[in-house]
């Protein structure tokens, strides 16, 4: 479809997003590609059709910091990786508000206090992505629930946050972030959700609506699941209802050895399988990866 639009609008069509380009109307595809068309080249009827087919992208002049522009060009253009040299992982928080965020500067300052080492990329007046450069492996969901409540009362908005995976900063992270974003957007548009939902909690819905692809899962997870001993330990651990002592007994292992394997898995992937919904998500992902390998 993008190719047909480019052929139709010719010189009025652009994939090279820049907030300095005047007179362009920008849109974003479901795959995350941003494109622009000169407003004077589009009729009102065509504008209505484009708005129906694609998400209008409202950058707002001068609203992007240097860091957020780098993320923008990396995810939706042909820019290079924006990762800090010292970072080896990133976690994305996909947020949206039912009301426009009027005071974005104060919003960003407050967000920096809640998620240090973060960059906000605004997608529209009501939604965006927060990139956490140096994330802790396991999220503190209780504290996130608290700052969502604070933002709701301080900015008079109804804020929703979808928490992404712990993603490895490698050549495939761009596609994984775009897959996460697309999956969460479907959930936000089509389902009633809590104000804070994690990737693990959303995963069953991803399977139901067909959002699961090979690019969706964190590289930390797929790397971990190449360890056959770890996979066997996790399978027995799940069968034993997350009981470490019973798992050790069935595997003829010392309890501390089983606990060590589980703790190392949690530390690497950020998936705390000591809790049911995280364990259920990992079990689903393991079955999917096994099925794809057959």
UniProtKB/TrEMBL annotation:
Pfam families: HTH_30. Residues 230-287 form the PucR C-terminal helix-turn-helix domain. Transmembrane segments: none annotated. It comes from the Bacteria. InterPro entries: CdaR-like_regulators, Homeodomain-like_sf, PucR_C-HTH_dom, PucR_C-HTH_sf. This is PucR C-terminal helix-turn-helix domain-containing protein. The lineage of its organism: Bacteria, Bacillati, Bacillota, Bacilli, Bacillales.
């Amino acid at each position: 479809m993008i190719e047909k639009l480019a052929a139709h609008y010719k010189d009025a069509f652009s994939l090279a997003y820049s907030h300095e380009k005047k007179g362009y109307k920008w849109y974003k595809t479901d795959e995350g590609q941003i494109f622009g068309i000169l407003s004077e080249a589009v009729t009102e009827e065509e504008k209505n059709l484009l708005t129906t087919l694609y998400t209008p992208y409202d950058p707002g002049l001068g609203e992007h910091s240097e860091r957020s522009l780098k993320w923008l060009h990396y995810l939706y253009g042909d820019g290079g990786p924006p990762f800090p040299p010292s970072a080896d992982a990133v976690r994305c928080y996909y947020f949206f508000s039912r009301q426009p965020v009027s005071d974005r500067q104060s919003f960003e300052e407050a967000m920096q206090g809640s998620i240090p080492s973060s960059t906000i990329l605004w997608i529209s007046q009501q939604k965006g992505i927060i990139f956490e450069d140096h994330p802790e492996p396991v999220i503190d969901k209780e504290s996130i629930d608290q700052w969502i409540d604070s933002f709701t009362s301080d900015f008079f908005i109804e804020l929703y946050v979808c928490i992404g995976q712990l993603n490895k900063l490698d050549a495939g992270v761009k596609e994984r972030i775009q897959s996460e974003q697309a999956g969460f957007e479907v959930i936000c548009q089509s389902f009633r959700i809590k104000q804070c939902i994690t990737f693990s909690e959303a995963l069953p819905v991803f399977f139901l609506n067909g959002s699961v692809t090979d690019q969706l899962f964190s590289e930390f997870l797929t790397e971990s699941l190449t360890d056959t001993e770890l996979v066997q330990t996790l399978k027995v651990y799940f069968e034993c209802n997350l009981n470490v002592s019973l798992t050790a007994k069935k595997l003829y292992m010392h309890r501390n050895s089983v606990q060590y394997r589980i703790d190392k898995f949690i530390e690497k992937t950020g998936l705390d399988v000591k809790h049911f919904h995280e364990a259920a998500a990992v079990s689903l992902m393991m079955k999917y990866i096994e099925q794809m390998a057959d």
